[in-house]
Amino acid sequence: MTALKNDRFLRALLRQPVDVTPVWMMRQAGRYLPEYRATRADAGDFLSLCKNADFACEVTLQPLRRYELDAAILFSDILTIPDAMGLGLYFETGEGPKFERPVRTEADVDALSVPDMNDDLGYVMNAVSTIRNALNGDVPLIGFSGSPWTLATYMIEGGSSKDFRHIKAMMYKSPALLHQVLTVLADAVTAYLNAQIAAGAQAVQIFDTWGGVLSGPCYQTFSLHYMQRIVQGLTRQAEGRQVPVIMFTKNGGQWLQSMAATGADALGLDWTTEIGHARDQVGDQVALQGNMDPSVLYADAPVIEAEVGRILADFGAHDGHVFNLGHGIHQFVDPESAKIFVDAVHEQSAQYHAQS
Amino acid sequence: MTALKNDRFLRALLRQPVDVTPVWMMRQAGRYLPEYRATRADAGDFLSLCKNADFACEVTLQPLRRYELDAAILFSDILTIPDAMGLGLYFETGEGPKFERPVRTEADVDALSVPDMNDDLGYVMNAVSTIRNALNGDVPLIGFSGSPWTLATYMIEGGSSKDFRHIKAMMYKSPALLHQVLTVLADAVTAYLNAQIAAGAQAVQIFDTWGGVLSGPCYQTFSLHYMQRIVQGLTRQAEGRQVPVIMFTKNGGQWLQSMAATGADALGLDWTTEIGHARDQVGDQVALQGNMDPSVLYADAPVIEAEVGRILADFGAHDGHVFNLGHGIHQFVDPESAKIFVDAVHEQSAQYHAQS
């Protein structure tokens, strides 16, 4: 493999000194970019875009051609694992993801097993190695997976949800059944991320998009516990470097201390938690990634720059900050605003890093 | 007016001693009750149900006939004020509320004014006095309003939203324009709640359903600031008693200390915050209302009872707890489970209150 030309992102995740704060954007390969929409049109539909390594590689690289980003992230869907489990993933226009066969009964749960990473999910590993080669050492490549709880919400609800009634009914009425689902998923996610690392991913992020809909005790038992198992089962060294793990629970700002105790290297933050307050809570245990409200990118340049400055100042002159949005970039954002954002992070952050 | 036979709810909101912890349920008059569905069918549609005092009174009283609830809450819609502002509220089946004329431009904002409480919103006051008479002093009646920020989200988005892109674009791009909207709304909500109090409401709750989608600084500036103005403008005494104010920001668990500093008597809590932790933060400044996950009501009796016990123990032997769900009761809950919940609160809480 080619030597890494820019390793700021990996260094910041391990709380090592950097010259400027590294930055990337969740969903940076996405619909706000006209070139993404063009590639997606060529691919036909969203799943075809994910399943073709050349298309997935192309959209992964698109934002890096426009912006001075410090990391690339594998372009893929969050629901590849349940899809590989045979639940029949499909997308209805404007409706989000759906499963033909939701997991509701004991028989449904008994039928679940860890998919084969090279067979059922080989297309993902193929995309990882294709992207890694194409990056040519410019910046590191992030692999990712949904958390077991988050994947389970889609599998049990049969798609997106507002009240999570099926999974919560199972959680409160038949907790053992839900634990069975989550155990299979934790094993699957561990194997999935390790396969991505073997294929070339240099850091991994666990997206717990829906952990924040739980009470504190249920979050610990049904989401965090399984993420911790994954962290413990991951390959943490590859190609002579540490492979950092980022754990992101949206709306998880009240549970940062327990998240930091899992052994993850970094925690993702949404914008509802002040990053300085988060840092006070986790101290030097973990790095922090975040956390500008993606809606700030609807504003004019001075507002974007001021908000970047506010977050940098709130984090302060410490190691261990990766700048990001608090959630995925919105599809209606002007691509020019993303450039203002990325450049502002680099320009304004040098003052917080000792020049050695 | 008849003397109040059960004032536990009002006493607990003012952190006065009670014999058992009072309990009510957000959305207790609702679709989970077959008798509600029957009355709604008689009324024709949802808005007709809200606008006819006899129907509104009937559905308000229905849950009190089934359960030993310690308070009634006015049955009404959260969007009565924007409707009275002439924005054209309507409901599409399965789609939630919509406005024919969303507020987007400076001209739209300039056209907004505080509606007349006796004319445009007289039907709400009529419902309040009708319900108050029908209650005959059994339990207190709660009036309510959406918060300015929450009302503004519907007015500016034109309905429900997932990413709040129009209002957030206005917030970051044209904050003065949004402040103008929120100022009119704060005046309108103050007048609206005062009119409800004059008509017989004995406590009021401000529902800030969407304050939790903001960053900390934006929450302070665009939601909490206007709720504080309302609290300061409210009639706090009526019929020789204090009229307590409850402030509820869903997903506001990180901001309880600033909420407690507004002068509200009580804070509503969703289930993502531990009530004992919340109490540690706010001390004796305010009472707390909450906070069981409504999804617990999908479980069997022992689980419901255990969860009630856990929350009571977490709050501990202090004055100032009103038990509630952390959000509205779900439509698919078995009405029998709500009875198990309400009875469990009364039965298990006596031990936490000194018997004088």
Explain this structure to me?
Two copies of one chain form a homodimer. In chain A, α2 packs antiparallel against α4 and α4 runs parallel beside α7 (about 120-135). Chain A is about 45% helix and about 10% strand. Chain A has helices spanning about 10-15, 35-45, 45-50, 55-65, 80-85, 105-110, 120-135, 150-155, 165-175, 175-200, 215-235, 255-260, 275-280, 300-315, 335-350, and strands spanning about 70-75, 90, 95-100, 140-145, 205-210, 235-240, 240, 245-250, 265-270, 285-290, 320. Chain A has 15 helices and eleven strands. The interface of A and B includes residues 214 and 303 of A.
- Oligomerization state of this entry? homodimer
What percentage of amino acids of chain A are in beta strands? 5-15%
What percent of the residues of chain A sit in helical stretches (DSSP H or I)? 40-55%
Q: Biggest sheet of chain A, open or closed, and with what strands and sense?
A: 7 strands, parallel
Low-pLDDT windows of residues of chain A: none
Q: Any guess at the CATH architecture of chain A?
A: Alpha-Beta Barrel
Number of strands of chain A: 11
Radius of gyration of chain A: 19 Å
| End-to-end separation of chain A | 28 Å
Please tally the helical runs of chain A, counting DSSP H or I stretches of 4 or more residues. Answer: 15
Domains of chain A (count): 1
Task: Using the coordinates shown, work out and report the CATH topology of chain A.
Answer: TIM Barrel
Q: What's the order of the H and E elements of chain A?
A: HHHHEHEEHHEHHHEHEEEHEHEHEH
Structural class of chain A: alpha/beta
CATH hierarchy, class of chain A: Alpha Beta
In which order are the strands of the major sheet of chain A placed?
1-4-5-8-9-10-11
Query: Could you tell me which chain pair has the largest interface and how many residues each side has?
Result: A-B, 34 and 34 residues
Question: For the residues shown, what is the average pLDDT of chain A?
Answer: 96
- Label the overall shape of chain A: globular
